[in-house]
Specification:
The complex is a heterodimer of chains A (510) and B (639). Chain A has helices spanning 8-24, 30-58, 88-107, 115-134, 138-147, 149-159, 164-193, 198-202, 208-225, 234-241, 244-269, 271-298, 302-321, 326-355, 368-371, 373-386, 393-408, 410-417, 419-435, 452-470, 473-494, and strands spanning 67-73, 81-86, 508-509. Chain A has 510 residues and is an all-alpha fold. Chain A has a domain at 279-494. In chain B, helix 19 (417-445) packs parallel to helix 23 (515-538) and helix 27 packs antiparallel against helix 29 (617-638).
Chain lengths: 510, 639
Amino acid sequence: MNSLGFPILSLITFLPLVGVVFIATLRGDDEAVARNARWGALWVSLVVLALAVYLWVVFDPAQPGFQFVEAQPWLSGLGVQYRMGVDGISLFLILLSAFITPIAIVSSWSINKRVREFMVAFLLLDTMTIGMFCAMDFVVFYVFFEAVLLPMYLIIGIWGGERRIYAAVKFFLFTLTGSLLMLLALVWMWRNAGTTDIVTLLHTPIPPQAQTWLFLAFLASFGVKAAVWPLHTWLPDAYGEAPLPGTIMLAAVLSKMGSYGFLRFTVPMLPHASAVAAPLMFTLGVVAVIYVSLVALAQTDMKRMIAYSSVAHMGLIVVGIFTFTVQGIEGALLQMLSHGFVITGLFICAGVLLARGETMTLSKLGGLAVRMPVYATLLMLFALASMGMPGTSGFVGEILVIVGAMKVNFWVSLLSATGMVLGAAYMLVLLRAVLFDKTTRPALDGLKDLSAVEFAMLVPLAMMVLWLGIYPSSFTHIFEAPVSAMVQAHFASLNPSSAVQPVSLAMVTK
Amino acid sequence: MLTSIAVFAPLVGAVLAGIFRPFLGKQLSIAASILFMGISAAAGVLDFAQALQSGSGLAPLHLAVWISVGDFAPDWTLRQDMLSLVMVAMVSLVSALIHIYSVGYMAHDKTEPRFFAYLSLFTFAMLMLVTANNLLQLFFGWEGVGLVSYLLIGYWYERPSANAAAIKAFIVNRVGDVGFAIGIALTYLVFKTISFDEIFAAVSAHAHDHYRLFGTPLPALEVIGILLFIGAMGKSAQLFLHTWLADAMEGPTPVSALIHAATMVAAGVFMIVRMSPLLNAAPVALEVVTVIGASTAFFAGTVGCVQNDIKRIIAYSTCSQLGYMFIAAGVGAYPVAMFHLINHAFFKALLFLAAGSVIHAMSDEQDIRLMGGLFRKIPFTWLMMLVGALALAGIPPFSGYYSKDAILAAAYASHSAVGMYGWACGVVTAGLTAFYISRLFLLTFHGKSHAPADVQAHVHESPLVMLAPLAVLALGALGTGFMLDRLFVGTGSANFWGVSISAGNVMGSLDSIPAAVAMAPLAAGFGGILVAAVFYIFMPSLPAIFATRFAGVYQFLLNKWYFDELYDAVLVKPTMRLAKFAWHVGDEQMIDGVPNGLATLTSDASSQVVKLQTGSIALYAFIMLIGLLGFLSIFLLVR
């Protein structure tokens, strides 16, 4: 049992499942069921959030390892245990999921089709994502990682837009293919180490030849989830067709599963392959930043433009992780959090227009700044954060990745920084098309500004964006210990003979 | 303490006017913005006066941790050395005057509090910039002023041209900012810190570091210097990154005065001066600074001579004057650059606001060919414009004379090739400057009126709330030159700036240049005025004759050396084409083509959807996998 005396991680993970049971048993007339399902789901997610915040409060940042560890025997003959634990890296991803879920549930208020089933799927998703970030055993991780697919597939396929079947199948196939490869890797690593305990796996050396293949398997799996170019094409379809809450969860939380996988498995367990493949990952990341930003610039649909911006930001995260520097990795982590808040805010802003029966076609919008000043202010804030304006969350992660990349290679740093220009270009085009110029149609004149519920969804996100931008130290001091431990371990395993850690990879010479 | 009041009071004003506007109401929120700006100006000027009395700045004031990742640890800190305090006093004072002026100028606007909120927010960002104690906080202010500049250029957002200009300004600035950001990263890599004092203390230790780029080891400090200067080029609208400034005139005139003349565009010069200890160890970077500055001064001067929009002429003039400041900075005469920066802030703000008063009088007409004869109708504005024009033209005893002369003296005294280039460009530009500002002045106020009758009937002097700030600025344009001369660049210079600026040797030899050389800019200035008088008073038919005789040159200048057309053809259009190509061909056909194409192959078009969900799934997945693995394996094998 852990230091708290009660299994907090299991509680956070499985509380939504209790909610699922409760909601699934709701009976009565449709309207009452829908109302109870909504409120039930919201309360469950809020309790989970409160627990997650409590977890943050009691977390000890000085300790680099896993905390609140729980273990129960499970498939014991195979060396598999039910093990849960958090470190500074997973803590904020748990908080991110717990923070985004209630907002996503509120954003689903307008869904009237099969509300009970929707809320069941949604709480299932909550359990799976949080469980995945808590998992300390590879099998447990794999189960949660895979299980995320199901509710998400249903959410897109049942409650999605016109091309929902195409989008759902595409999403399912891309992610499933990757996952199957991860299963092979899992089996290999289990045979190699005799257990699937993540801590043991972290300390079990893997021969460099095998690392290459394992790396590829992980890349296929995490790369699809993180939408690394060119595995990203499922994303605009899925984001575009999913209902708003589904899009939010996909963009804010599920995309982090991939980058989390890189940080938890690929980099620490496969140091040689990671080091060898770093140039490849830089290339993929930089291509995502430049190529995908260009594609975003060409979009004519608000939701798809935001979706592509998400891929571009994931590219920056990948670059940061594979710099193997404290700045790069912490920058990637901050960018992951920032992206979670910003993309949610942007998609809700798109949803606000959809809820008013408006189109997403950019050329048919315009001039909303004067009709909806509060909306305009918040959309502007999220767009600025997306383009990395200092003082917002987007900047801190971006500059840290640029600084980290500079330690490795000038050109990677420079090309990553071009996102500053391209990101500004498509976001300013979006802002102009939605907020400025003369209104194109009389219908736009009648639009109402944000309702209280919409305001309540967007303001917490805006506050997080500013908090991360002005005082990111609240977050970085928790990353500090695990990330520097990871960086040191990486170089130690590459260079076992030298007792001294290489301080910098840089090209500066005296 | 005073510094924090000066810096944060505008932020309070911006929040009150911007966010609490629904609770305060229109009048009260504007009043709040002006009140807090007044507090800021009082604190800023008092702060400077105290420092002047005690003879030195204050220690940096630490506010809070910002980022702390490994040894990359920039904090929120207010730097209070003499350089910062001079800028704080100037920025807060000019901003307060422009806030007051705006009450009159924007009186008919629908969303006035928003305008004041932006102005105050801008001032806050600018003050954060000048009081930054590390490169990243400077970058915070830098981007902040850029953002508000974007918002204010596009203030009248129903105008498509304003929106286009706003986006252009932001994007062009961001191109420079990439250089700046990379420069910050490289500074951190070399120095292991981005705090000013720590960088400056370590300059000599790193003076011989090399950084490998393009396969050759280059001096690291030179690379840093050039990267930072690329940032400065964007913000200060220097050649190649200058195209946004003239378009920025789409914003309301007080904005042009505050942001695009007095303060923000000078941030690039300020940054170069701030980094003087580092740049002194980067002689090549400094030469680049001088060459770009001199070329910009000349380029913008030539363009300014033929433009017809009153604000655009002054905008090109700003571009040109910033070039002068870079000439001085590049030869190591940083105090001279600061001297011109402060003088320019007053006389250029004056010129813009006077132009605003003219535009106000002319019912929003901006074309000087449609003006004329305003002298009798708006004599006070005439007087104000005259003071500003004489200061810009560098006629004694107005302020521009002192600083422009000092810049050219410094360029000459540096005895380097680039210094001579700077001097030559500077002298020619002094003539051009005097010409275009006299042209503007004469066409606007003298000669016959070319305005339609109804406009002429409406011409009226602006209200007192607009004229009073003009008068204060005019005093500045008259006084800052001889008042600050000794302190800023004269015998007291080294004492005054203390350690905040590390000036080059050239500062000692400003007075030891030949008399003929020293007289050259003034002679050029009088020459320019004389030519303008001949062209526009004595022989008004001459300009048209010249325009037809030298049609090629005229068109070349009128079209601003065709930079916009060039960038459009070489950068903007190809980028948009590439973007469409990447989307339709790259994503839709090539990447998606693999799975989608297979689905089509294995089924009739009619049953495609069904097949996609059932029959072809395995194949679909399998091929995707093979492709991925092949791609990766090839990469790993080849490398």
